[in-house]
Fold this protein.
Amino acid sequence: LAATGATAQAGPVLGALPALAGGIGGGWRVEDAAFAAAAWAALPLALGIGILGAITSLVAAVVVDGSLRGRHDPDRELRAQGFANLFGGACGGLPVALSDSRTLIAWRAGARGRGAAVGHALCLLAAGTLLAPLISGLPLAVLAGLLVASMLRSVDPWAVDLAWLACSRGGRPGRDLLANVAVVVAVAGLTVFAGLFPALLVGLAVGVVQFIASLSASVVRRSYRAAAVRSKRVRADAAMEVLGRLGERVAVFELQGSVFFGTADRLAQAVEAVAPEIEWAVLDLRRVASVDSSGARIIQRLHEDLVSRGKTLVLAHLAPGRPLWPVFAGLGVIERIGSNRCFAELDSALEHVEDGLLARHAAPGSGGHASGLAGLDIAAGLDPAQIATLATHLVEKRYAHDEVIFGEGDRGDALFVLIDGEVSVRTRLDHEAGSLRLSSFSPGVVFGEMALLEGAPRSATVVADRDAICLALSVEAYERLGREHPALALRLALNLGRQLAQRLRRANGQLRALEH
């Protein structure tokens, strides 16, 4: 370069590379005062570089995972990086971090094992030792260009996309978008003018504030009244009409996220806003990830406030064995609210509320046992003579607690009218999960009627939840009714069709209410 005059044309060159410091420690001794002063001065910067290197490595590992369809071990990655930086620093080396670009380039070139990393390190060592005379003649302008290119490549593509969205969006950028862009600009500016460590502290502090602000958003995912959305228990028509009329007195609040002082207070405000209109408030905790002591105390105070107004608070998805139970139980909240108002599922909570509404407001007979064949929905529109004829074709059957009335896949040979007790409809899941409850029936309800309408095998299993009394109408008896008393058989078919239509209408109403 000197012979051709290129040095003068290209400007200053890098010059001779500094020799190695001469072994581990670089000539420093721990007892030197200069070493102690330099260590204390470099400590904040070292911490910042370490934290930033760890974050950079983990982000790069995630990027590589996405490209290589693999999964890294973050603990192993950080341990390896820490040991490498400790050993390299003791030898006078610079701190390093995982580079997603170099990793992907090596992968595309055919590298598949640890030998690729060792080979890369040996090449760098050879370039810094054997090729030192050639590197010393490298113009500083070329090195500056390499640094600028490296700087541009190190800019996070997410930050570039964020800035592009903020500038190119048709209307005014959203508040969250502008806040993210402001954080990126502030951290980058502090890195240049104040240093890496202050920028890192500010970035972490702003991130924590943004995280807390996002958690402080409304914890109420959705709220609705129980006029349309009800439990899985099927009751007699009179009871269902009462629940449809009084369902507006029950408010269900689906919660999500974390319940703490920043969100629980908003929940209390939401419940108190509708408290004058309701008698029951149900909190569905299914989607709640965590509850701290302040959130649990606010829910307790909400319960006490509702009780003072003659209202009742019920908690769903809160039972022994559930993740949130130890928090409420340990703080004494369960004892004050009452374990009888805490349920493992929302359906059980709604069923409890419905029983309370019927007990408080229903007319006699609308929520209790069926009062004779004449009071059943299946006998609606029948005169006394037809009721007497129908009674001769019905057979009374009794079932003990947990006894199977009919099983899934059995031949459909009869319909049943529940006179006393409770039964549940269940369907089989896989072996580990057992069965799923589809619905429950109260006295006065007809079940198994599809056997008369289609004659197909049973689609579910019906089990007695407690001792039950049923009236069974077999397919043969119904066919005999059709031949001997066609008007009676037609009226039975119309009553069955009306009940099926009502159940379908209620299901549509629940879907509509949940959708909105």
